[in-house]
Structures are given as C-alpha cells and as structure tokens.
Amino acid sequence: MEKNFVLRFFSVWVGTARRAVRGAFGERALPFRGTYLSTILLIALWIFFSMDVSAATLPFPLGEELMYSITWNGIPVAWSKATTQMETVDGRELIALRLRTRTYSFFDTFYRVDDVHESLVDPQTFLPVRYTKNLQEGRYRCHEITTFDRAAKKAHYVHQVKKKEKIYDIDADTRDLLSFMYFMRSETLEEGGVTNYRVMADEKIYDLIVNTFEVKQIDLPHYKRKVSSLEMVPEAMFDGLFVRKGKATVWVSRDPRRLLTFSKVRVPFGRVRIKLHEVNGPGDDFWITEKKDGDEEESK
Questions:
Q1: Mean of all residue pLDDT scores within the chain
Q2: Whole-angstrom Cα distance, residue 277 to residue 291?
Q3: Residue 131 lies in a domain
Q4: How far is residue 212's CA from residue 189's CA, in Å, rounded to a whole number?
Q5: What is the pTM of this model?
Q6: Cβ neighbours of residue 129 under 8 Å, at least 6 residues apart?
Q7: By mean pLDDT, which of 45-59, 140-154, 166-180 is the weakest?
C-alpha cells in the first residue's frame, strides 16, 4: 500500500533528518521507515495557485536564495537551500529551481547526506520540462529523471541507478513537487478555507487538499520582527482514498513573497522542525534589509 504521502511530500527535509540521526545514533534511534525529511519543504514552502504565470509575473525573484535549518527532537541535523536562476539548456532559456539539503559537518562523520532536487521550468507557461532528484545518503543512492511531454500528456520517468523506466499519463498542468512549491507563491489563501490541487510525486498524480486556519506571528531568530504567517494543514488522496498517517503543519508568510516560515511534522518517537533562517538575493523588503546584525549562515 502507499506510504504516508503527506509525510513523504515533506520528506525533502524530514527524510534527511531521520537518516542523519539514524546514521549517527543507530537504527533504534528512529524506529520508523520511509523518506520523511527529503521532501518536506516541497509543499511546506509554498501553497498557492495561479492558472497563467509568465516570466514577467513570476511569483518570486530570480536570484533568490532561501536558507532553512532543520532539527529532529531539538537536535540540529541539516540545512536546506532553495535557489532560482535563468539557465540555457540545450539552447533553450529555462528557469532552474534547485533545492539542496545537507547534513551539518558534524553529522558527516557518522552519516553524510547530500540531496539535490532540480526542476527546469518553461518561463512562459511555468510548467516543468524536466525534474531531477539526486539523493546521496550514506551508502544509499537515488538518481531519478522525469521528462514531461506536454503535447502527448505523458511523463517519462527513469531511475538511473535501478535502470527502471516508466511512462504515465499527466494532466495538462501537471507539476513536480519542486516547481509546484514555487508556483504556489502566486496566490494568497485566506483563513478558514479548503483548496484542492493535483501534484506529481512518486510516479503518480495525487490530489492534495490544503486546509487553512488562523494567522499567527512566527518568531525567526535571525530577523528583527515576527512574521505574520497563515497556518496550513495538508491532506492527500490517491485513487479517492485519504492517506491519514502522521500530521504536518506549515506556516506561510502573508507578505508578497509568501515564504514558508516554519513547519513541524509529527513522526513516531520524535518531531521534526524546519525554520526559515535567511533570505538572500535581490529585493529591498524586510527579508533583505531587517536581518539582525552579525548574523551569518550556519549552514556553511
């Protein structure tokens, strides 16, 4: 049967923390299975929707860099960096979205994790052309590439390590997790609402239900002000059935950037927390101008 989709949807970060702690302290330190940390940002980061996004109206600035810190049961285990930039690929100008998650150097001695997700996106339609997932976690390796054929409404999936291939149907606007998370920054959700989406993950198309609650003030240790953020709880369905194991809650800022400020995931024998550390790149808003003096990136 399907593993917990909601936790797996957040696993870009949660899985990394889980495997890092397991590698450092042994298997019994984390008596549960599945990839929980290596995708947690992908929906937690941004939950917004728009039907027509072009390069002139991107819901994020090119050159933006988002830094996140990740803890498991209060133990700092990893950091994540999300970036955006234009690149020329096979003679075509595309937006390159990347999310990299790395264990802190202390954990590398026990269990090194270096996960990279990349989505190449058409700047006119904001639909992904190619999605790549490259995971290096201890001795484990995973290298997957999904190419989208919009004309045929097909996705071609290749697992480079296992030599596995699959072609499956997609919708006209199907997005991978990474491009979806940026796409979602284009519209503001309101308190007390329910919104439905369809997202590609694990070679399948899932229905995602996003429930919104009240706005709270989130304290970010590297910023001078608390940030108003909307509380959201996602649920997932596959083939009409809810997947209800575990619970993830995220908070997204109410300013024009609509960033994930904080996320928490309840897992067996522990809790995972993800917090926005720093925003770098272009702009003159408070994310750039109101950082606390003397702060430096803890991830390097």
A1: 80
A2: 10
A3: yes
A4: 8
A5: 0.80
A6: 89, 92, 94, 120, 121, 122, 147, 148
A7: 45-59
Residue 298 lies in a domain: no
Closest CA to 144 of 101, 111, 184, 176: 176
Tell me what pLDDT residue 1 has: 36
Q: What percent of the chain is modeled with pLDDT above 90?
A: 49
Residue 269: give the domain boundaries.
5-283
Give yes or no for residue 262 having a pLDDT over 80: yes
Q: Return the closest-CA partner of residue 130 out of 91, 165, 92, 156.
A: 156
The structural domain count of the chain equals 1
Task: State phi, psi for 193 to the nearest 5 degrees.
Answer: -115, 170
Name the residue type at position 182: Y
| Those residues with Cβ within 8 angstroms of residue 163's Cβ, 6 or more apart along the chain or in another chain | none
Q: Is residue 294 part of a domain?
A: no
Distance CA 74, CA 204 (A): 34
Give residue-wise pLDDT tens across range 191-219: 999 988 888 887 788 888 889 999 999 99
What would the 3-class secondary structure string for the chain be?
CCCCHHHHHCHHHHHHHHHHHHHHHCHHHCCCCCCCEEEHHHHHCCCCCCCCCCHHHCCCCCCCEEEEEEEECCEEEEEEEEEEEEEEECCEEEEEEEEEEEECHHHHCCCCEEEEEEEEECCCCCCEEEEEEEEEECCEEEEEEEEEECCCCEEEEEECCCCEEEEEECCCCCCCHHHHHHHHHHCCCCCCCEEEEEEEECCEEEEEEEEEEEEEEECCCCECCCEEEEEEEEEEEECCEEECCCEEEEEEECCCCCCEEEEEEEECCEEEEEEEEEEECCCCCHHHHCECCCCCCCCC
292 found inside a domain: no
